[in-house]
Amino acid sequence: MHNKVYEVSHEKVRETILNLKENEDFTLLLDVTATDYLNYPGHKAERFAVVYILRDSTFKNEVIIKTMVDDETLTLLTISDIYYAANWGEREVFDQYGIIFEGHPNLKRVLNHHQFVGHPLRKDYVITDGQICTETEDLMDEMRPLLKQKGYEEDEVMLLNVGPSHPATHGTIRNLLAMEGESIVAATTEIGYLHRGFEKACETHTYSQIIPYTDRLNYCSAILNNIGYCKSIEDMMDIEIPERAKFIRVIVGELSRIMDHAVCNAANCVDLGGLTNFWYIFNPRDEAYEVLSKLTGARLTNSYTRIGGLSYDLYDGFAEEVESVLRSTEKSIDDALSLIARNKIFLDRTQDVGIITEEFAISAGITGPNLRSTGSPRDMRQDKPYYHYDSFDFDVVVGSHGDVYDRMMVRFEEMIQSIRIIRQAIKQIPDGSIITDNRAVALPPKDQVYGSIEGMMNQFKLVFEGVKVPKGEYYSSTEAANGELGFYVVSDGSGTPHKVKCRPPCYYALGAYSKIIENTMLADAVVTMASMNFIAGEFDR
Amino acid sequence: MELKKEEDLSLGDSVLVTKLDTAVNWARSYSMWPMVFGTACCGIEFMSVAASKHDISRFGAEVVRFSPRQADLLVVAGTISYKQAPILKKIYDQMPEPKWVISMGACACSGGFYDNYTTVQGIDQIIPVDEYIAGCPPRPEAFFDSLIRIQEKSNRESILEKDRQHDRDFKGFLDA
Ligand code: SF4
């Protein structure tokens, strides 16, 4: 089930995308990225290609548009006026590859610092070439045009720097706000403080070695990233994983979703001044960590999946321990809700605050609970079901206002739905192996490694050369805790990817944040940020 | 009014004779105020350190500050990129003396498995570090272990020595 990559000439690409949006209902721009074909076997055409990944409004179909960029000019026309999401998408391509998007309102670096020279994802940039940053930029180059556009003089507003080291921005997001009294008249967001070169690291590691890196994308739900990544490689190679592995992936994946939502809502309560909720919600989470560390060997960074299946089978008593976690989770949700659900202060601080409309969310590429809270029932688990999600009985949770309150309540309710899924999956889980027996993918059993020369060679080749993925380009996605988590992989046929691009759901949500908080109060901006669950490992990669 | 008997006049157990250092160190080490510079996954694990199961307040260090000016223990929990480096240094410089630094996790200690163009290969290239914790992320118990070692260390210090020797000699790549 390979998705097709449509190649369009660089003169036509803007037109094609506009047409796809207006006439073919491809309303969501999932990601923009580029590929550097330097040293790609058999490649003769231009060096760089830019890739646009679009999704239609039913979430059932996606289309990949690829265009080769002229070697001389390295320029394409922007599509940031067609999709809001393209603004940050194109900035990242510019930052990492040096492709210029003509007509982009603010084409500057987004992940690397402003003193950085060169473009790190180009194949001729040496991975270990670090560049020291001595000072932080003042961001006035972004703020001045914004103020002008709003009709303010610089001395009429108070400029307030929030972050990156600020309790509300959780360590890695920086906002520059122009304030008039308590109201925000203009805002810009700067990220990149936790950029750790995920994509570049992928190009120097074998497919299996990348799995630990995926843990650290959204580290609140590491297993969901493991699953998303391994699933894309499996899809790319057309491998079916055993049924048992599918069910276990569903169970631990949903458990991770519960913990991710728990962290988000607990932290949001802290930001609202409700510390007690934090204690309530964190207790079952620690219990879940115990289960996961028994199962996978690690509390947080699990690296539980393998290409083709899983690393370990369930231990005896797993089902009972999970059930106990689920019960404590239900209790903690009840406890937390009993403190806030009818609490006037809580309602006043969250209702009609930080509103996102459905239309804006789609244009900005916001997916997952943040999109569902606007009333749009889009969930990859239902719209493009994988691992038998369509056979489980669960509801897609939607909100109605798209405000902070809805986002929190959607997350609480999704935790309850995940509990339902886990209970059903545990009942249905079949016996069998947990990893495919395809020896081109999975390591042989240890008795064969030590007992036969074939087994030993098999192990040796898989470890040293990696899993050989057929040449080609592929995009595959799953519903992670924050929304659609996609991986776009380019393989040159070897055991190391030519390129891996992660489509991080909260990168695009964060790109929209400065727009969402415009004309709101400062204190509301804080809870709005907390309710959208920005995970630095994911948006900065 | 009757005069008290002789033993009533003695001060009994109500006076303690000690060294000033001991008294000050006792107070300092059992009421550390941490400033958590949590940037990544290790920062999430620090949340578990603070939450009720592991409960950092058992060690008297639960007053987590977000302002460096109110803290004496800097916990760097997470990867530090070159972009983040000047900010970390500024935070450290803003903390009043005496201060201690815990480097939590492989990333803060050495860059971890991010040996690449964007990651500082250990925060001790920027600021002096007192305790390193291995792990990716370390378990909460490992954090407490290093906290206890910081307490022991601060118990051995003297208030007469204003700036500690290794801090004075320290030169990172941002102290050009
Ligand atoms: S040491 Fe590991 S867990 Fe900690 S920040 Fe680095 S990658 Fe994350």
TrEMBL record, chain A:
Pfam family, one: Complex1_49kDa
TM regions (residue ranges): none
Main location class: membrane
Superkingdom field: Bacteria
Catalysed reactions listed for this entry: a quinone + NADH + 5 H(+)(in) = a quinol + NAD(+) + 4 H(+)(out)
Alphabetical UniProt keywords: Cell inner membrane, Cell membrane, Membrane, Multifunctional enzyme, NAD, Oxidoreductase, Quinone, Translocase, Transport, Ubiquinone
Topology versus the membrane: Peripheral membrane protein
Known EC number: 1.6.5.3
One CC-aspect GO term: plasma membrane
MF terms (GO), sorted A to Z: NAD binding; NADH dehydrogenase (quinone) (non-electrogenic) activity; NADH dehydrogenase (ubiquinone) activity; quinone binding
InterPro entries linked: NADH_Q_OxRdtase_suD (IPR001135), NADH_quin_OxRdtase_su_C/D-like (IPR037232), NADH_UbQ_OxRdtase_30kDa_su (IPR001268), NDH-1_subunit_CD (IPR026662), NDH1_su_D/H (IPR022885), NiFe-Hase_large (IPR029014)
Domain NADH-quinone oxidoreductase subunit D: start-end pairs: 271-541
UniProt domain NADH:ubiquinone oxidoreductase 30kDa subunit: residue ranges: 7-129
Cellular compartments annotated: Cell inner membrane
NCBIfam families: PRK06075.1
HAMAP family registered for this protein in UniProt: NDH1_NuoCD_2, NDH1_NuoD
Quaternary structure annotation from Swiss-Prot or TrEMBL: NDH-1 is composed of 13 different subunits. Subunits NuoB, CD, E, F, and G constitute the peripheral sector of the complex.
Protein name (database record): NADH-ubiquinone oxidoreductase chain C )
Gene source species: uncultured Sulfurovum sp
Lineage of the species this protein comes from: Bacteria, Pseudomonadati, Campylobacterota, Epsilonproteobacteria, Campylobacterales
From TrEMBL, chain B:
Primary location recorded for the protein, binned into one broad class: membrane
InterPro entries membership: NADH_UbQ_OxRdtase-like_20kDa (IPR006137), NADH_UQ_OxRdtase_20Kd_su (IPR006138)
Signal peptide: none
Top-level EC class: translocase
Catalytic reactions on record: a quinone + NADH + 5 H(+)(in) = a quinol + NAD(+) + 4 H(+)(out)
GO molecular function, one term: 4 iron, 4 sulfur cluster binding
Cofactor(s), names only, from the UniProt record: [4Fe-4S] cluster
Any Pfam family the entry gives: Oxidored_q6
Any GO BP: electron transport coupled proton transport
Keyword Translocase: yes
Cofactor note: Binds 1 [4Fe-4S] cluster.
Domain NADH:ubiquinone oxidoreductase-like 20kDa subunit: 41-148
Subcellular location: Cell membrane
GO cellular component: plasma membrane; respiratory chain complex I
The protein's Enzyme Commission number: 7.1.1.-
Annotated residues for binding of [4Fe-4S] cluster: C41, C42, C107, C136
Family per similarity comment: Belongs to the complex I 20 kDa subunit family.
Subunit structure: NDH-1 is composed of 14 different subunits. Subunits NuoB, C, D, E, F, and G constitute the peripheral sector of the complex.
Protein name per the record: NADH-quinone oxidoreductase subunit B
